[in-house]
Design a protein that fits this description.
The protein has about 220 residues and is α/β, with parallel strands linked by helices. The protein contains nine helices and seven strands; from the N terminus they run βαβαβαβαβααβαβαα. The protein has one domain: P-loop containing nucleotide triphosphate hydrolases (Rossmann fold, 3-Layer(aba) Sandwich). The chain binds adenosine-5'-triphosphate and magnesium ion.
Length: about 220
């Protein structure tokens, strides 16, 4: 399965999702490739920290790709890995489009803030354009990241995402929690932190389980 984590908003949590998904899949015993297709190279920095902290035992393979070669290289790499996770930059780039054309699943985190939600229509258009030229289906999931622990903003944002005819809305929101940034700064998934945040672990595993279930029911 090839996953692209994308969207056209900076700082929405793409690298957080991509790295945590990679770590979780590798902990489940899958051979995973993490592809950094963002010129900022944040997931590559994550892997560098991880290599230092885990003495090289990072559990997955990581590479950097950009532009059209995201597509051509990944097509060659698909048979070699169980899963490929592609982290993209927060803009509509050649790299992100190339990643989407070779992906089965497109994951887009949205922060429950207006500037983020205003990008929804543009991302929907992007998905429709890619679907129009792609032979295999591209399942697109939207969900909230950095959600408020309480308050009405989450609900308003959720209503907007639920109404999308392009995205399937995943109802598990990742709340704004220090554990995510603490883990990232050490090159760890949130499940690997020494001081466990059980709420963060529960929500991220529920989120990933929910789309895995939806994907397998769509394939059947
Ligand atoms: N649920 C969360 N709770 C707390 N902090 C978070 C959460 N999700 C992401 N962050 C923090 O927000 C910042 C942006 O997250 P991240 O780098 O994953 O976003 P991005 O979409 O990849 O950004 P870019 O567009 O720059 O690539 C990081 O400092 C990250 O640690
Ligand atoms: Mg990023």
């Amino acid at each position: 399965m090839v996953f692209t984590v994308g969207g056209i908003k900076g700082g929405s949590g793409k690298t957080t999702i991509a790295t945590n998904l990679t770590v979780l899949l590798s902990k489940q015993g899958f051979d995973v490739l993490l592809v950094d297709a963002d010129e900022q190279e944040t997931s590559t920095d994550f892997t560098t920290w991880r290599e230092e902290n885990l003495q090289g035992e990072i559990g997955y393979t990581a590479i950097k790709l950009s532009g059209e070669s995201v597509r051509s290289q990944i097509l060659k790499l698909i048979p070699k890995y169980d899963h490929i996770v592609i982290d993209t930059g927060g803009r509509d780039t050649t790299s992100q489009r190339a990643a989407m054309t070779v992906s089965d699943v497109y994951l887009v985190p949205f922060n429950p803030r207006s500037f983020d939600l205003w990008t929804l229509n543009k991302v929907e258009k992007l998905v429709q354009e890619i679907r129009a030229v792609k032979a295999n289906p591209l399942t697109a999931f939207a969900f909230l990241n950095r959600a408020d622990p309480k308050g009405s903003d989450n609900n308003d944002a959720a209503e907007l995402l639920k109404d999308s005819e392009v995205f399937t809305y995943l109802p598990t929101a990742l709340v704004n929690r220090k554990a995510y940034s603490n883990a990232a700064s050490q090159g760890l998934g949130v499940v690997e932190l020494e001081v466990k945040d059980s709420k963060a672990i529960a929500e991220i595993t529920t989120l990933f389980d929910s789309f895995k279930e939806l994907i397998s029911s769509e394939i059947e």
